[in-house]
User: Fold this.
Amino acid sequence: MSEAVLVVALALVVVMATAVVLTRDPARQAIVLSAYGVTLGVLFLVLQAPDVALSQIAVGTVVVPLVVILAIHAIRKQHGERR
Amino acid sequence: MMTAALVLLVAAVGPALLTTLWGDPADRLTGLILAGPTATMVLLLLSAAYHRPAYLDVALVLGLLSFAGSLVYARFIGRTL
Amino acid sequence: MSRRTRFAVFAVGAAGLVILFVLAAFRLPDFGGRFHPYGERAVTSAIAEKTKNVVSSVNFDQRAFDTVGEELILFASALGAVILLRMVRREREEEAGEHGYGPADVFDALRLTGYLLLPVTLLVGVYIVAHGHLSPGGGFQGGVVLGTALHLLYLTGDYPALARLRPVPVFESAEALGAGAFVVLGLAGAGLLIPMNSVVGLEVGCAFVLVLAKFFEQALLVRTDDAGTEDS
Amino acid sequence: MVQAAIAAPVLIAIMLAAGGRRLPRPVVDAVATGTILAVTVLLGIVLATALRHPVVTWLGGWPPRGGVSVGIPLVADPMSAGLALLVAVLTLAALVFSWRYLVEVQAIYHALMLLFTAAMCAFVLTGDLFDAFVFFELMSVIAYVLTGYKAEEPRTVHGALNFGVINSLGAYVTLMGIGLLYARTGQLNFAAMGARLPGQDHRLVTVAFALVCTGFLVKAATAPFHFWLADAHAVAPTPVCVLFSGVMVELGVYAIARTYWATFAGAVPGARPALAFLGVVTALLGGVMCVLQRHVKRLLAYSTVSHVGVILLGVAALDHDSLAGAAYYLLGHAGVKSALFIAAGTLLNRFETLDERELHGRGLRLRASGAVFLVGGLGLAGVPPSGLWAGKAVMDEAAQRAGWWWAAPVGVVASALTAGAVLRVWLRVFRGVGPSGGGTAEHEDSETGPRMSRLPWTMLTPGVILAGGAVLLGLIPGLLHGVSHAAGLFVDHDGYVSAVLSGGAWHAASAPLHPWTAAGLVGGAAGVVLAAVVAVLGLHQPVPRILRPVIDRLRAAHSGHVGEYAAWLTAGVALFGLLLFTA
Amino acid sequence: MSHLPYLAAGWILLAGIFGMVTSRNLVHVVVCLSVTQSATYVLLLAIGYRKGGTAPVFSDIKPTGKVVDPVVQAMTLTDIVVNATATALLLALAVQVAKRRGTIDPDELRPLE
Assistant:
């Protein structure tokens, strides 16, 4: 059974990673990236690495999305002012 | 426990994640908001299944931060998103 | 190069990479196998040192030099954010205006939740730092949680409160202090896990707050004149 | 001692970052320069010790028990200690140059330079592959920031971004390779991995070698991984360019050599032809691109690409003499190229442009910079007794013995093209020869704020000393002997493994080197003559008409498009792997 | 199953590079780069996994029995820090490119010569 959990977690990670790459609009991509981070966290716990899972969740849920969104915001504003 | 975790992973986390893949940002955000707590539940169940109370810390942090993570997007929806 | 050529170059390379990687992957030991000589030695060494969390022992004691490098990367990139995102001529931070991020447009219930969560998150951060040598977690993870906690203020709609709580120079000094103390402890290499976790927590938390502060600054920037086409 | 040389700059850097903005500028300069001076002395002592007996230091008190350890060693053999010393010396020159340099967030610049030095030293001294990855990343992160330091200029941030993305991508591919090696050997230490590689499946080992080398090849700007280099070097601040071209890029070649001899020695039969192929392509491509440039820093950047190709070719022969020659060449190149970048920096400060045409005849009165350009150009051409000439002569002789008759001509072509371009700049800018005009009038910041009435000595002396030293390098007999000794130790895989893992003896059989051969002198003369021809031809007719389509293709390929660079990187990994398997 | 996780890591690596190659937006490039890096986490942790093993954290269990490899976990931790910082730095550069160049489409950015 634990093997099945592993396979499912791995499959979710692969699907989400591909999805992150294929989402071309950065703002939408950021949301998918957050979701991807959650799947990574689950996979790491399944692989018996709670320290790494904790790290991934800490970085991937708030800090990285916030940086990405703020960057997009700064860039959008730039473009808005130009037009 | 393990079975419950598996079922939850397939039946709840999976669909929530898939919701983030299509639609406009608000729809995607719904998926993300659902994915946080359901994944937390999965982690709780896994912790029990592996007989490792130490893993609960991970679930605790995911529970706390996934809420904050959803807020990040909620804050910007209609503005940048 | 046209998009098609670029894709063709990539496709050829990717095909080669797939062949190489698959060749190698099938020569690796089976997934879940028992061959982990370094890991077993690390566990033995950690038990001999009476450290309960072996990952922490590897990070802060056996391979402490790696972690010194890692913390310096963090330190350098915080400096980098300060450099790369500094305000240049013709820019200033936006006052609370139409783009303002003042305490507005967020439900009261949400804001209350945020305020309530702030102390809880801080507490959890401290707990994760303090128990790094025992349970999963440690300075890095806890530090990030601590840094995140402060930003709950912004997320619940109160940027001014965040700005007040975040005097950038203090964080810069604290970050440097943490990094310096960690380098000294790391090279002393005495396996002082508890103080090491604490200084890493300090450094990481401050570094992320600093980096985010710089990004906030950029997101809230306006130009005071319309010389928006420097490069033309 | 070794730890102190790494820890001292780090701690001072942290203090400068914390409190430096309250200090007056001269104090910051003095502290930074003084620290590097101390590091130079320390590393000098380390090198002197290492020449007698290589020093292995296990950090944190985890020495190996029974041939295995859980800790990380620092290995100071003459080669690594010598390179670390070179890093320190070049940083010293760069810091002296930047005394009058405009720095906006002042002490942070100094802190970053100190951290950069420490990162490079740790990278060359470490004896652990994953640790090397960590310090590779530290070095790279600091390098992106320093490249983008003048963040208000469009080309600067774009160049830094390309640099960052491509270098990080390379580093991650390297980490995949480290993972493969770890899975198979269960070790991370160069020596311990090397001790367990014999008998492993050769396909896995070859793929691991290809992946591990990728990041280092990107750093070494080997074709087709080289695109980022010109983008970054053309825009980075001058003192930073000194470190980039002088030593950081070469550290990529060093890392390949180190991983090869310490870990893979003998396990990858394809390494020799594969590395040689990449070296030749890089040397020629870099030379051609160099001649085509008119932006002086970009021109110098491509010349670095070309010369690193020659160094890689020297390493690729995988024998002791050739490696010694390559090391000597590296030393000479570091001096010449740093001096040239410093001289280019003085041009930028005086005239606020680096366009060769626009600078036509304007350097007539800059005697010192002109002299540096002339001497540097001759040095690159391989005029005896320069370090490049001596290294080249030794490499060629080794190549001849190995049956690589084509290696010497490739080297001559590379040095003729790159030196020709530099001499062309000298003729046009400092002698006012050739037609003028046709400038693009692209204005750049002068890097020093208000224009100075005359150039301060701090901006000239480092360049003059470095260029002069590099050109006379071949005359120092003791140095040749030392380099040969260092190379002898470096290629001794068994000695390395036993010295690191069990504190065993590590002696080298070092043969004396003789650059003063007829072939060597002919090679040097040919380089100088051809360089003069290239320079004079280049003054009047930039490109022969027949070659136009090819040249346009080449230019178009160096587009500054980060996606293209990533595509080339993928293709490069595949190509390198293919060469390793088939050759 | 015996090699599946390794192949998954390879897939993620390639997918990330594919995204970078075909991207029309520098922010997208940087995010794809971080996906590329996540391939290394998966590979490293898969290598360190041991069937039936548990985490080498002995706060709630006795240090007997099978545990997974702590060294790869330490390496992955370092890797995650590198990822977060590199992403932040490169995004900072992307913001500056947008400001100075007025576009973040690599196709529209002028050559650097």
Summary: Chain A has a mean pLDDT of 90. The two ends of chain A are 57 Å apart (CA to CA). The longest helix of chain A spans residues 50-82.
